[in-house]
Amino acid sequence: PARRAFGILLFYEYTDSRVQDVGALAAELEALCTRLHLSGRLRTSQEGINGCLSGTWADCQAFTAAMREVCDGLFRRTDFKLAPCSEEQQFRGLKVWQSDEVCGLFAGDEHRLEAATDLAEKERGQHLSPEEWHSMLSTSAPEEVILFDVRNFYETRIGRFARRDQAGRDEVDLVDPKTRLFSETPAFLCKEENLARFRSKKVMMYCTGGVRCERASAYLKQKLGRDADVFQLEGGIQRYLEAFPDGGLFEGSMHVFDRRGRVGGAEIAAAA
């Protein structure tokens, strides 16, 4: 079908064993992208990879298959999220680069690599499938649960999770840090008045595809204590909208970091 002629491929992987030669990994993945005529952005680091690529649907699928085999199977279990786009919505050009982090939680910190390495050893939030997430948000007592949107303000203002009563009022509190950059999250979580909102609650954390929650959930658990109930939406909003094409409990649109700008459940579900 025409709607599947081109695709946007979103993926990340925090590797259990650290990448030994980041330069070699970057070169190998850049060569693979070039061979398959893919465009977009791909960050590599000792922690793993984080990418958003575009190309023909077939070439995106070929990239996914090839990634299962490279680096001795290091990315065999990576969750590759493929969604349709138009030819005009593809990225312009390809950028593959090396970084200290898969996702820049500590960007600008003079001890960035040390902080990222230390956090990598900490326990992350418990993953919930889209169905488990939907059930927990739908059935939990309002006073027992709190939502935490770790995206930036330009993302949260066009779409968010919510549970409404019959009058349309919020039943579950939402923490929106209104950050401009992901790297502002640690400063937000270092303030006791912000942490107090999470204490003694089931924290339901979410982002676009899941990558920001991997580190933010570990950081939050470090601040609240290991026994804190922190959960994260597996595969992010994108996987949730695939499971609930009508939007489910997600209101509005999902901001995406490509030429589509924003998408809804029906557009995401077209890939299913």
Quick structural summary:
By secondary structure, the chain is of the alpha/beta class. The protein is built from ten helices and 14 strands.
Q: What keyword list fits this structure?
A:
alpha/beta, five-stranded mixed sheet, five-stranded parallel sheet, 10 helices, 31% helix
Task: Enumerate the strands of the largest sheet in spatial order, edge to edge or round the barrel.
Answer: 4-1-3-2-5
Poorly predicted runs: none
- Work out the oligomeric state of the chains in this entry: single chain
Tally of alpha and pi helices? 10
Give an account of the 3D structure.
The protein has 272 residues and is of the alpha/beta class. The protein is 31% helix and 24% strand. The mean pLDDT is 92.
Write the layout of secondary structure elements.
Elements: E1 6-14, H1 22-35, E2 39-45, E3 48-56, H2 57-67, E4 81-85, E5 94-98, H3 112-120, E6 126-128, H4 130-139, E7 145-149, H5 153-156, E8 159-161, E9 173-175, H6 185-189, H7 192-195, E10 202-206, H8 211-224, E11 230-233, H9 236-243, E12 250-252, E13 254-255, E14 262-263, H10 265-269
Parallel strand pairs: 2-5, 6-11, 7-9, 7-10, 10-11
Antiparallel strand pairs: 1-3, 1-4, 2-3, 8-12, 13-14
